[in-house]
Amino acid sequence: xxxxxxxxxLLGTASCLGLMASMVWAQEQDDGFLGTLELGESKREIxxxxxxxxxxxxxxxxxxxxxxxxxxxxxxxxxxxxxxGSTPQGSGINIRGYGANGTxxxxxxxxxxVDGATTGAEELYRxxxxxxxxxxxxxxxxxxxxTVGSFEYGSGVVGGVVQLETKDASxxxxxxxxxxxxxxxxxxxxxSGFASSSILAWQPNRQTEFLxxxxxxxxxxxxxxxxxxxxxxxxxxxxxxxxxxxxxxDNLEHSVTASWxxxxxxERDVPYDSFGTTADAFGNVDRDIETRIAVLRYQYRPAGNDxxxxxxxxxxSEQAIDSSYVPGSSSLExxxxxxxxxxxxxxxxxxxTTKLTIKNSAYFQTGAASHDLRFGVEFIDRERLDxxxxxxxxxxxxxxxxxxxxxxxxxxxxxxxxxYETQDIKGNGDAAAPFNASYDNDALMGGLSARYxxxxxxxxxxxxxxxxxxxxIDDLGTPLYMTQPEKSRTWEAGISYDRGDIFAAGDVxxxxxxxxxxxxxxxxxxxxxxxxQPLSKVExxxxxxxxxxxxxxxxxxxxxxxIVSATEFSAAGIGSPWRNEPTDSARxxxxxxxxxxxxxxxxxxxxxxxxxxxxxxxxxxxxxTLRATYLPQEGALAGFxxxxxxxxxFDKAYQPNLSTRNSPGRNFKLTLAKTF
Length: 676
Description:
Number of domains: 1
Number of strands: 35
Radius of gyration: 25 Å
Protein name: Hemoglobin/transferrin/lactoferrin receptor protein
Keywords: Cell outer membrane, Membrane, Receptor, Signal, TonB box, Transmembrane, Transmembrane beta strand, Transport
Organism: Ruegeria intermedia
Family: Belongs to the TonB-dependent receptor family.
Domain TonB-dependent receptor-like beta-barrel: 260-649
Oligomer: single chain
């Protein structure tokens, strides 16, 4: 298959990068003693110590990337493809070919968690809205690709899991009593964008902390590399985060955390179709969007007791979308189709998910094996209001899960995982059949992974996982789908390397190569030809590569690549390219740190030709981005943070694979921040 044929070439590329780095710095060593060397640091630490294909983006990288949306923040993760990622209302996240597409903002196979709360709508026709929030609210983002590693978070995960953690007051106070205030101002040229983020952190004592974050982001319509306006790319997004934590007990082993996270947007006279694929057929709407997330969390971590690490998380997540049709804006007014279009545009969508997760982590020994066992129970209640083409109802679930990292000595780790989930799904009792029916389903899912680490720094790993996507409220109109969970099986295998002092004292080389193969069957999310002809199967295989080299003197190279080949099969068994297949892509970042003061990097991203959301071909492209972070350590500017970036330096006009419109052209960004 195509995915396999490129593996050797990409591994060769990564090897060449390491060789180039060694040649450059071997010359520098001839200059003599360099002084006391610190460990080299790249832009992103590759997670070589786990068999799970996971990428973590920390606060430093969040700041440096200057992302307009959370989707833009994670587009540098291999396997992640964005559908119109530069605007929150039309953007979507696709991982390994699953998630957002040009019709819906999600297909339920990518799980989005904010402080443990499940967020995101079901299938809303031509409205993205999978993750409607601002990146300034968060201190870390973690992306798990695939099913392995997903069972303590949810069922039906085929593409992956995106976890976001909001900022805490102690991130700014350092855990000491007092006030801190942080102000961030950001401007960007393309779309005359502006953002302001104000954070007030207060610790009256070491037990109590409070944080308030208000972020306001505004952008006019952007232009692509040809100078053409990108329709429906303007937005205004005010967001706020209020969070408090109280710790108590003899050793502060108890803590209670409460938070409120909210983002809103008012759009006036904008196309109903956020993806911009249907011209003016659906007309324009006035649309109000609001996302609200409330979390109450209790943690108990008794000192000296390895068997108890209790985490109780009660969350409420709500997405409300209220739209009204703008008269005279549809080209189909007066046609037999218009009443249905008008009803679709004059709609109120509301999703509310209440979830209680009770989880304990226990550390114990059994013979030669040490265990890190995480087990728990989840109660999930999801409610959806009736709307045109979006039936209302409730989806109540109970899940039990257990994941055990079993360590044998210093080299072998084996991780079995299980999740059992039951479902009671009901339609609105006032609706007509079949939308008023009820169904019961259940599923047992699980996986097994293993990792073996050699003394040389190499490690090998492999795993397999099976999951089921239980029916969703959106499919109440098709009784067959309501008793047919989608099923998926994934196999993973790979190799990693993590070693220091390879070419010079203090340098670090990290690399991870992950091969995967996923089969999806009993499909209800996608159709072949007509809605009565679902696809019978989707087969996906690919390889994800992450590599980095960092020298103690500040030079670093980060590289990642994604190669994938996927096939969909009709009910008749006829195979064709998977309609949501991502294209092959690679990203390399060359950077240099000058102490703690300056970090300059050049990022190059390239993608092969592929298909857009409609299945039409789009050309390959390469895009360059320059970034610089200046953190003065002394003088009048000490404590200020200045970041500058030039995205799409050469003003390239291109349409990414799976997107419905061109990406923005050249964009100058400038950020000024200071914590007082």
